[in-house]
Structure formats: structure tokens, C-alpha cells
């Protein structure tokens, strides 16, 4: 691409459905609340929990609130949303996950379509659509996730001819580690297709509990992973699970990159973020640090979704075959936009250049 070309996040050389994501679709139900609301449901500010039966009335209460905002959420779907926004070309991204046949499912479908993501959901007849209650109190946010139907995705959906065609048409695949708790067979099917067709398969460590409690499916997928994402706490949990014997994030990234790989001709790239500290990238066995964009006082609104936005920015450049340094630059831009706003939201058009 010509050196004077600056609009690198534009829709250049992007084909429909080039990026395929698979994960847990959640409808984010966001409201501004107060301590009384948190106390009513025994919640804490700046906390993320899975819903228990006592929390279920919360979702109805929030959805009936006059200032409620609904967003298409879930880690992988958030990354697809951001990559889609940056591409500025409809249907760049394909997303699959499981939702219910209910009102929340209809809203989720609308919200995904509104941001240009081509969502092809599996529908569960018995389970409700997965939801995430987001209560904002000042600069804090309490999240309660009810996975519900998102837990019920099956490989049957992937195997339907029209859906498998979408997989085969894609060139890049991204799946957050959370999906390891739902459908490892679906992950492995996509991973093996990617390998046999010399495409790019990517995963995210997603949360410390994935390495702790779902190490077996994670390590079954790892030999197929061309690019691995994570943050510093997820890297630490991975190091413990793998007996790496180090807490140094750079060293963990080097060891993760060196794990056995099916396609030995392509070395694994590892990308570990560290909040305000530099992002560590291991490429071709060499570790490089990339500084993040500094925030001014008062700019930080909501860190939820920042990691997903980082991945989305990275993917937006990768699918245009830009070098990793440019992928990181766009990743930092995307994360910087999202953390200055409530929820994983963005302005109509990016101003990245």
C-alpha cells in the first residue's frame, strides 16, 4: 500500500465475511443506578459475577427502566462489533452464538445488525437469551451475567451447509476463551479447517478461570492458535496452570509463543495487554513492547469492553494484511475510544489515521 495512504482503517481490500467470530452473545442491559439498587441485589461496584436465582428479577427491573440502554454484548461479539465499525463496510464480520426465541433475542439481533455485524444465531427453544446487567454508579460498573441460551450452542449449527459455507469463506477466525466452556467441538472444527487451509486462527485467554478450570480444552486448541491474546492477570493464571515458573509477563508471552504448534512453519504471535503499561507482543520469537495511549485526568469512563475493543482494532488491521505494529496501533486507538464511553460503544465513524 502506498506510503502516503493514511486511511488504513478504511474498507480497502476487505471482502464480505472475511472475519468469523464465535462466542457467547449477551444482551447488555445498561442503566445508571445507585447504592440502593446494588444493595437490593447484594451487588458490589466494580465487580463482575454470574447471576444466581436471586438476581433474575434484576434483569426485568432494569429492562423496564426509562433510561435503559440495550447493546449487543459478549466478548467475541464486542470484538466483532469494533472490527466492523473500523472497517466501515457492512458484513465484514460474521458472528455465531446461541440465543433464545424471546424479546431480548429480538433486541440483540437488531442491535448487532445496527452496527453491521452479520449475526447468524442458533436459537434455543427452552432457554432465555443471555443477558448482562450493567449498573453504572459514578465511574464504577457492576456486571451480572446470565449466560442462559449462550451456554447451549452446538456444533450442529456450525455444520449446517449455509453456516459451514460462512466458515469456509472466512480467512480469519477469532474465538474468546469463554467459548471453551460451551462448545469445544465447534472450536476444534474451525481450528482444523483454518490449519488445513493456511488461514489464521486466534483465541483469547479471556479470564483467569479459563486456564484454571478449562485447561484441557484450552490446550487441545492451543496447537492451532496462530495469535493468542490476553491480559496480565490471564497471563499469570496461564503461567501457573502451565507450570512456567515465572510471573514476568514478557517471559510468559515467550513461553506461550513457544508451545507446540501444528503449523510449525508459522510461529505463534502472542499479544498480552497490561492496562496502562506497555503491551507485550512476541512475534517470530522476539518480544516487543508497545506503549498505550495515555489518558488525561477524567477521561476514563468505563474499562468494561476495553480488552474486546483492543482485539477488534487489531483484527480490523490484520484482515487488511497490515503489519503487527499497525494492528497494535489500531488496537490501542480502539481501546482508547471505548474506555472514554459507557459500555462497548463508539461514535458513528472512526477518526483513526
Unreliably modeled segments:
1-11
Relative helix content:
25-40%
Oligomer: single chain
Mean pLDDT: 90
Helix-strand pattern, N to C? Answer: EEHEHEHEEHEEEEHHEHEHHEHHEEEHH
Structure description:
The structure is a single chain. The relative contact order is 0.14. Residues 1-11 have low confidence and may be disordered. It is globular and about 55 Å long. The protein is built from 13 helices and 16 strands. The chain has 353 residues and is an alpha/beta fold.
Summarize this, please?
The chain is of the alpha/beta class and 353 residues long. The protein has helices at residues 35-40, 56-63, 75-87, 103-114, 155-159, 161-169, 184-196, 208-213, 215-221, 232-241, 249-257, 306-318, 324-338; strands spanning 19-22, 26-32, 47-50, 69-73, 93-96, 98-100, 118-119, 122-124, 131-137, 140-146, 172-176, 200-204, 227-231, 269-274, 277-283, 286-290. It is built from 13 helices and 16 strands.
Structure keywords:
single chain; 353 residues; alpha/beta; UDP-N-acetylmuramoyl-L-alanine:D-glutamate ligase; nine-stranded mixed sheet; disordered N terminus
Helix and strand arrangement:
Elements: E1 19-22, E2 26-32, H1 35-40, E3 47-50, H2 56-63, E4 69-73, H3 75-87, E5 93-96, E6 98-100, H4 103-114, E7 118-119, E8 122-124, E9 131-137, E10 140-146, H5 155-159, H6 161-169, E11 172-176, H7 184-196, E12 200-204, H8 208-213, H9 215-221, E13 227-231, H10 232-241, H11 249-257, E14 269-274, E15 277-283, E16 286-290, H12 306-318, H13 324-338
Parallel strand pairs: 1-5, 1-11, 2-9, 3-10, 5-7, 6-8, 11-12, 12-13, 13-14
Antiparallel strand pairs: 2-4, 9-10, 14-15, 15-16
